Structure formats: C-alpha cells, structure tokens
C-alpha cells in the first residue's frame, strides 16, 4: 500500500513594496504567512519600507500545468486512513481489476465482513471489494508524468467503512492494537497475459515463495501489512485534557514532565498528540501562525506525516476522528484542537482542546451538549460543525490529518 506524493518545481518571487503595504496584506496576496516572509528576508520586526524588495518564497512556475506524482510505500496504516494500492501489469490496459483487503494470521478477532474482507470506501461506494481500471490514472491531465502509469491499476481506498466502531473496539482488545492484513487481487489474464506481480512473494533467490497463494499479496512474515486504530493516543490525550490543566502560553512547552504540564495551550496540546503518534519526531513548540498551510505545518513538526485535507475549508466538510482543526485571524489570534468524535445525526464535533478564559464562540452549544463548561483550561468541548467555533469562524483554515504513522500509545 502507498501514500501519494506530489511535487512541482518552483521559482522564487520578488515583490517590490508599495505605499499602503503591510506584511499581512502581502502575505494574504501571495498565499503565504507573515512568519514565512520574515524568515525568508531576515526581518526581526513587522516594519517594511516602500521601494524595498522582498523575497516572498516560491510560487509554482506559470508554465506548470499539473503535478508530478510518485508513491511512497507503506508498511502500516490506521482504520479510516486513505491509501493507494498499486498493481503493475503488462498488456492489460482498460481491463478491470478487483481488490479485497483481508485479515491474516490467527488473531482472536475478525475485521472482515461475511469473510469477504475489510469494508472499504472508494469512489464506487462502500463495499468489501474495490474496483479499478488498468491505465485509468494515465488519463488524468493534471498529472505531468501520467504516461508512467499506462500499465498500472491504482486503487484509492479508505480502510474501513464510515462506521468502524466495532472494528476499533476489537482492535483495542489486542495487546498491540493491530492486526495483520493481506491483499487479494483478482486480475483475469486470458491467454496467459502476464500480471507483473501475481502475488507470489519471491524468496531470497528470487523464486516464488511456496508458502504464498497466487493473487495473495503481503502474506508472509516480514511482509504483512499492519492495521492499527488511533484510539490509543486519542484516548490518552482525552485523559490529559480532562485534567483541566490551567491554560497558559508560557513556561516549558516542549516537555511532558510535571513542570511542562503545569500549563497547556491549544497548539501545545496538538504538539503532544502528534509527538505521541510518532508524526513529530521530537516534541517541539507549535503556534497557529505556522499551522495554517500544509507546507508550514510540515516544516514546523519536522515531518511530512501530516496533510491538509482537501476541501476541509468548505462548510459541508465532515471531519474524521483524529483530525486537527486550525483557524487563524489576520490580527494573529488563532486556535486549534483535535477531533475526538463527530456525531453525524446531531452534526456536532467533540473537540480536545485547551482554551483561554474567554471561551469559544459556541459555548452555548458546548454546555448544552455535555462539554466541559469551564474556561481557561484544557478540556473536552462540543461544537456545531458549522458553528462559529469551527468552520464559520473568521480565519478558518480547515482540517489537517496525521498520515503514515504507527504509534498508538
């Protein structure tokens, strides 16, 4: 299984300051941040001078019409994660290929539905079977290297159905909170047309391993695909914020020591979450000013294991458990928190956060629906998905999602 990686070459942009300009206006105009402009130009204050030239960083080349796409191999993922499964073929263009993700080894629980496999979400709907066409990816004009994929069949799937409560409960019972999965791929090959990798994992001599079965992938020791759930870390963070630690933006902010947990603010809570997931290699100080774009967020945590969720700035977006929301106003005020639960029926989002004494812009909803009523502390809160505390807030940036991590506790 894989994650997709997009890249495009960029060239620097020079901007000449004119009368009326401020760093905030320039940053907004060029879709960047004040912090990044200051860092790129060695500025120590917000003072700028008419006629001077600023390096705004980089912008995509104008002649660029799309992105180059590559795939990064994964050894593990979580329920609810979006992944790609890539099958390389030969002479099977436009043929349909089908896929099941099944549980292997002798765990004491089953994630499969009616023995057919794990529930999967794809553009075809929700089922245990995903379907894709060989070469379909090569027809996407937004991809600059699309011809690389003319003999590939690429499945884009989300692991698990929309409701994975049963699966999560079962995973939580296991010591390591993980199961081993394998792929069952059905690619019909009439007249002995070759499928480049038919599921027989080669041994050290390059010969097909006799322990495996045709069309079964990742089904031998050392090759299994590991499936986790992120409940462990989220529940740990919930226990932390439910201690109602005093809100504060000073003191030790990069330590889990007793001294470091005397105070918490919103971005510090998110930093601890990402560190415990394994997304952030080292616990570092965050603030919302460097969490408003995917590039800045990744630089801040020192890892590419986080992405801005497409269309999450839109009012109709439904967040997932574990997503991180961010808003940041032009005056520098911002807030962030972690989605603990989304109630589809009530359209309410349960948030893990640390908040100042003023509270949120949706305190009425929070108190009415069982959220912690205290302010100036860390807490579990409940907000309207489209309310003023979330997607209707000024400076709303949407949701960021941790990806490609394995730690659960």
Report what the structure shows:
The chain is α+β, with helices and mostly antiparallel strands. It has helices spanning 23-29, 34-41, 165-173, 231-241, 266-277, 294-301, 363-368, and strands spanning 2-7, 10-16, 53-60, 68-73, 76-78, 82-88, 96-103, 120-122, 125-127, 130-133, 152-159, 178-186, 216-217, 225-228, 306-308, 324-328, 334-343, 348-355, 377-384, 396-402. Strands 5, 7, 10, 12, 13 and 14 form a six-stranded mixed β-sheet that branches. A six-stranded antiparallel β-sheet has the order 15-20-16-17-18-19. Helix 4 (231-241) runs antiparallel to helix 5. It starts with a strand and ends in a 7-residue tail after the last strand.
Helix content: 10-25%
Total number of helices: 7
- Give the radius of gyration: 24 Å
Strand elements, count: 20
pLDDT under 50 segments (min length 5)? none
> In angstroms, what separates the terminal alpha carbons?
23 Å
Inertia-based shape: globular
Question: How would you classify the helix and strand content by structural class?
Answer: alpha+beta
Overall average residue pLDDT: 84
- What amount of the residues lies in strands? 25-35%
> What pattern of helices and strands is seen along the backbone?
EEHHEEEEEEEEEHEEEHHHEEEEHEE
- Biggest sheet layout: 6 strands, mixed
């Amino acid at each position: 299984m894989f994650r997709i990686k997009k890249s495009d070459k960029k060239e620097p942009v020079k901007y000449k300051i004119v009368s009326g300009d401020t760093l905030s206006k320039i940053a907004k105009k060029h879709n960047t941040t004040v912090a990044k402009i200051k860092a790129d130009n060695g500025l120590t204050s917000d003072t700028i001078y008419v006629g001077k030239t600023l390096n705004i960083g980089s912008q995509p080349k104008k002649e660029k019409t799309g992105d180059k796409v590559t795939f990064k191999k994964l050894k593990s993922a979580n329920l609810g994660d979006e992944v790609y499964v890539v099958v390389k073929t030969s002479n099977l263009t436009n043929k349909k290929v089908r896929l099941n993700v099944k549980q292997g080894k002798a765990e004491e629980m089953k994630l499969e539905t009616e023995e057919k496999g794990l529930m999967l979400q794809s553009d075809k709907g929700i089922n245990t079977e995903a379907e894709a066409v060989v070469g379909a990816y090569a027809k996407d004009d937004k991809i600059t290297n699309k011809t690389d994929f003319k003999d590939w069949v690429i499945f884009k799937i989300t692991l698990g159905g929309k409701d994975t409560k049963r699966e999560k409960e079962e995973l939580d019972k296991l010591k390591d909170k993980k199961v081993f999965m394998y792929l069952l791929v059905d690619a019909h090959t009439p007249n002995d047309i070759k499928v480049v990798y038919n599921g027989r994992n080669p041994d050290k001599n390059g010969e097909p391993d006799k322990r495996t079965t045709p069309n079964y992938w990742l089904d031998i020791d050392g090759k299994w695909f590991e499936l986790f759930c992120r409940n462990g870390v989220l529940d740990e963070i919930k226990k932390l914020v439910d201690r109602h630690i005093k809100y504060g933006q000073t003191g030790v902010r990069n330590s889990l020591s007793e001294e470091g947990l005397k105070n918490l603010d919103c971005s510090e809570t998110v930093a601890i979450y990402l560190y415990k997931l394994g997304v952030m290699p080292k616990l570092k100080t965050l603030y919302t000013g460097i969490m408003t774009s995917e590039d800045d967020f990744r630089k801040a945590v020192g890892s590419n294991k986080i992405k801005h969720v497409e269309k999450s700035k839109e009012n109709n977006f439904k967040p997932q458990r574990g997503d991180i929301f961010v808003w940041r106003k032009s005056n520098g005020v911002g807030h962030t928190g972690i989605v603990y639960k989304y109630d589809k029926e009530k359209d309410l989002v349960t948030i893990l956060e640390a908040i100042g004494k003023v509270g949120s812009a949706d305190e009425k909803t929070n108190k009415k629906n069982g959220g912690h009523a205290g302010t100036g502390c860390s807490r579990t809160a409940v907000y309207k998905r489209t309310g003023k505390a979330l997607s209707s807030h000024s400076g709303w940036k949407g949701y960021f999602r941790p990806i490609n991590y394995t730690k659960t506790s």
